């Protein structure tokens, strides 16, 4: 049981706690009655010599008070809890097997009692890689309407081999996000992450989830439908959307004038990155992703590789405009440490300035940075990275920097999913729109900044 389910069980009006309490009271009263009968029999009847020793052992006479009572109480509670757990699995799990939504029992009972739960916020997380996956694992624990918008420019490993053969958007980061939003104990989730490792096999290095999405793309006829069907198979909490359906390539112009082509080549040993761009230039944004941004209460950029996970999404036509139109709070989550080959020697201000350069002045509200000094002590010199910590000196015009402890206590070079999610939702609550009014969505024909094309095309135009 996770923390969210526990809070749901404690909600007043669930009509569960009262019956649990009554059941416990009945067990206590029954136990007291049996104990009183046993005490009366023991005091008023003389047992034969052969039975008296057995009775003394059965009643734990060899254990002094109050340890005798404590042992019986602990054993009784353990057996009671175990029996209720096994009984519930035997009776309830077969009934829940028909529910394909991925909800646990607490959510099903809560919806039956009170009706569907209205999400507290519409949250959109934009990025890719392991950083976005970690964030999603934390956000899915809360009562929010969650949408992940994922970069599809990856070209390394299994994903790169698939893209070379099938000429399709990258499935790797999509797969990671789908699994992050699936049930933590899901067998299908573990299956999607399984990577073939038999030497000499053509499947070596491929992740099963990548192959599944690729096969689903061929069967359904579109990458879009493949992602939808994969989400249904995993019963994810929320939505995972590609930022574009176009087959794009990430490129970087370096300070020496040379060009790195492909995401795997952008993170390199050599000259620093001057700018990144996509081929083809300004691909069309995925319409449901743009609509999700427009209706968001909170828009989160990152965490993740700055040039290969976060910024590529801002190069998609319509995404930066959708962020500008949205009345939601926009937050950039700065990485815990620099990334060798991409952001060497970057501080907080450098990261924020790059995001603002691609997003536009005045569109980024906050930058959330780590305040815990633990990452600096965990870094080894051979890693060639530096901790990114806010020291109060970093200033970026128009962007408020929020410093919080958001790192994992066991692995301080990674964000803690739940810590990070709590801080982000606290920002959303602090910036909640008065009266909870819905965000305005431009009509299909409304122009954005007087562009010649509408931000969201009519349904008939996108078919």
Helix vs. strand class = alpha/beta
Q: How large, in whole angstroms, is the Cα Rg?
A: 28 Å
N-to-C order of helices and strands: HHHHHHEHEHHHHHEEEHEHEHHEHEHEH
For the largest beta-sheet, the strand count, sense and barrel status come to: 7 strands, parallel
Instruction: Please work out how many helical segments DSSP would assign.
Output: 19
Which strands sit side by side, in order, in the main sheet? 3-2-1-7-8-9-10
Count of individual beta strands: 10
The low-pLDDT segments are 435-463
CATH architecture annotation of the largest domain? 3-Layer(aba) Sandwich
- CATH fold-level assignment of the largest domain: Rossmann fold
User: What oligomerization state is this entry in?
Assistant: single chain
CATH homology superfamily name of the largest domain: CofD-like domains
Overall 3D form: elongated
Helix content: 40-55%
Report the β-strand fraction as a percent range. Answer: 5-15%
Mean pLDDT: 85
How far from one another are the termini? 43 Å
The total tally of domains equals 2
Regarding CATH, which class of the largest domain? Alpha Beta
